[in-house]
Amino acid sequence: MNGRKDRNLKFIDGKWFLDFTHRGRRVRKFGGFTKDQAKVALAKERLDRRDIELGLKKPPAQDVTFAAFADEFIELYAKPNKRSWRQDEIILRSLKEHFRGETLRSITAEKIQRFVAERRVEKSKNNGHTIAPSTCNRALAVLKTLIAKAVEWGRIETNPAAHVKKLKEPPGRERYLTHEEARRLLAAASPNFLPILIVALGTGMRRGEILALKWTDLDLVRGIITITMSKSGRARKILTSGAVAAALGGVPRRAEFVFWNEETKDHLKDVKTAWRATCARAKKDPDDEKDPGITDVRFHDLRHTFASWYIEAGGDIVSLSKTLGHSTIQMTMRYAHPNEQKTRLTLENVGGILDSTRQKDDTPPGTVVITTPAAPSVNIRTRDN
Fold first, then answer.
1. Cβ neighbours of residue 205 under 8 Å, at least 6 residues apart?
2. pTM for the full model?
């Protein structure tokens, strides 16, 4: 018996290897650095194979390349469940390039951390600047989800990305239009682009939601817009002002979509050119050639502007959150910047309440309070009865 076991062990270059035949197939594996280690490994290997045949143990999952599983992830999970699956597909291109030749089992936490570190110092192809931490974190989020699915589907046993931390991101961007900038922007817009701007500033809708509007989504009589396909995948209804309803009512009906592109015979997909041109024309002084117009602003900042104006006008954060289509109040808070003037007025009102409360508490019994324009509060002590 011992002789048979010894025949199944090979000593090569200072290491012991298992070498045996199982069901007509030759098995060769590393066994250890000593003969005793190799004997134990051989016994365990034979026992595992017997348990698998008896159904007492699951067979080891077949390893697959990262690239192959990334394609499966897109088809089986991302496409059916995520409206942003195309963005995931773009992110996975860089991930597949970085993990070229790697299998799911060969990817470790260290290799993932190395990807984050190398990605952070890469130069963007668009502007030559280093990749932003938020961009790195989005890639890491996709990678974590992919590997979590690999664990869920039984391809690997543990998730090496679980404890890899995201990069620290700088505070969120805080850019919104002043009332004067908004007036200039609307005055500079072309007739076709103006309704889009009015809807954005008047509802806080996302660009994609605006451009995908259909006439069946509008109830201009009651002033209601129905968002059927939102970023979260949930439908929602938005109440509109008369200005927004009038702007939409003035758009010519050419097809099922409100904002139609006659050249492509489809709804508008982007407004970058119109947006940049409008911002450039929105000068403080139209005759000043050096005036750049409105700068450092994105179309998405109109959503930000709506939220700020909504709070400024007295709206509450809960109804704003529902209008914007956020799943949590925390998501809405980053859009709602308090107006300093309104904050001071509110503080003065609170102070007035405190003054009146203090006055009642400090006034002795039997005191008559007389209010005059010259003296807001004059206390007169009367005799006790």
1. 199, 225, 227, 238, 303
2. 0.57
Q: Token pair for residue 50?
A: 């017997």
Asked if residue 177 lies in contact with residue 143, where contact means CB atoms within 8 angstroms, the answer is no
Digit-coded pLDDT (tens) for 75-114: 999 988 887 788 899 999 989 999 999 999 899 999 999 9
3-state DSSP assignment of residue 90: helix
Separation between Cα atoms, residue 360 and residue 353, nearest integer Å: 11
- Architecture, CATH, for domain 179-333: Orthogonal Bundle (1.10)
Q: Are 240 and 202 in contact (CB under 8 A)?
A: yes
Instruction: Please state the domain extents for the chain.
Output: 2-53, 66-152, 179-333, 353-381
Per-residue pLDDT tens over the stretch 128-176? 678 888 889 999 999 999 999 998 988 888 899 988 998 887 766 678 8
CATH 3.20.20.140, applies to 66-152? no
**Cα torsion through 284, 270, 201, 295, rounded to 10:** -30
**SS3 state of residue 97:** helix
Q: Residue 117 burial by CB count (10 A; 0-12/13-18/19+): exposed, middle or buried?
A: exposed
Buried b / exposed e across 81-101, counting CB within 10 Å, b at 16+? eeeebeebbebbeebbebbee
Contacts 24+ apart (CB under 8 A), 308-315: 308/176, 308/335, 308/336, 308/337, 308/339, 309/201, 310/204, 310/336, 311/336, 311/337, 311/338, 311/339, 312/339, 312/342
| Residue (of 296, 304, 297) closest to 320 by Cα position | 304
CB of 164 closer than 8 Å to CB of 112:
yes
**Distance from C-alpha of 221 to C-alpha of 134, rounded to nearest angstrom:** 42
